[in-house]
Amino acid sequence: MKPSYIIAIGTSAGGMPALVELVSQLPATLPAAVLVVQHLAPDSSGEHLVSRLSMHTRLRCHLAAHGDTLQAGHLYLAPADRHLLVHEGTLLVTRGPRENNYRPAVDALFRSVAVSYGTAVLGVILTGMLHDGTAGLDFIKRCGGRAIVQTPADAEFPSMPYTAMRNVAVDYVVPLSDMAALLQELTSQVPPPPIPIPEDLKAEAAIAERVVGTTEEADHLGERVPMTCPDCGGALWKLEHGNVLRFRCHTGHAFTADALFESSKHALEETLWVALRMMEERKNLLSSMAMRGEGLWSVQQAERLNEIKAHINRLREFLLNGSTGATTASEQEGG
């Protein structure tokens, strides 16, 4: 049966126990299709997660496959290392560019369903770390859908719910125990009248379906900025549509400002560790030179050696104190 609503769920750390609790309360007669992005390690198999969900719900659960037709009362889980999109009632499972360093990405799913189903979308953010899904909820709101967030105090990892609430005009903030009843109540109603879909979201959704875009398309979406994509090294464009500041490159890597900041911290840390290694190698060379030399020349090498030792100690202290350490979320099940 064709669904009247789309329920799109995004979760990360602590996600599987939360999903099990939520779907266990949803009836087989739910007039909605449920699409789920749970952050997974790239080499994970989603089959055991689908089996686990099937044991606790009357919904029919599937690992999403390219070309599947959406049906009410069915749940579709995004496979590992693949984005889950929709187009004209059909699932698209693609290996497109990462968004917020994730594939599958919550933002990619939320944007796709928002453009395709507009006011008939209910976007749900459950427990998780970092920022994926925040921009996606904003996409859903801009297309007339509604945003639902697990109460942060109720979430095992409150970062994703809290970040969404901080940046998006969320419609409902509820504990997990009340969420299924809310979803059943909302899906029992006639969807609100459709509203025009923003052109920038339609353009981004079309690019995601094709997997890669062009610089000309990126120029129409935003302003090119003097920064590079941390994933591919390409130019970045700043996108200021909606309430969430975002950046993307023309190949499709996309980041919220928070996610881009975390990526730049990680890249900086890696660069500094490389610099430390090179300085250690230089120190060893100077030490050998000072030992083999004589007179003034040997004294000069010893002075240079002491100077580089001081730089090494300062840099090592800076790194070990965690001043540049990037916070990363585990991509394992529930991470």
UniProtKB/TrEMBL annotation:
Gene Ontology CC annotation, any one: cytoplasm
Superkingdom per UniProt: Bacteria
Residue ranges occupied by any CheB-type methylesterase domain in the UniProt entry: 1-190
EC number(s) stated in the UniProt entry for this protein: 3.1.1.61
Family annotation (Gene3D superfamilies): Methylesterase CheB, C-terminal domain (3.40.50.180)
Catalytic activity of the protein: [protein]-L-glutamate 5-O-methyl ester + H2O = L-glutamyl-[protein] + methanol + H(+)
Gene Ontology molecular-function annotations: phosphorelay response regulator activity; protein-glutamate methylesterase activity
A Pfam family matched in the record: CheB_methylest
Record keyword ATP-binding present: no
Keyword annotations: Chemotaxis, Hydrolase
Active-site residues annotated for this sequence: 12, 39, 132
GO biological process, one term: chemotaxis
Name of protein: protein-glutamate methylesterase
Organism: Hymenobacter telluris
Lineage: Bacteria, Pseudomonadati, Bacteroidota, Cytophagia, Cytophagales
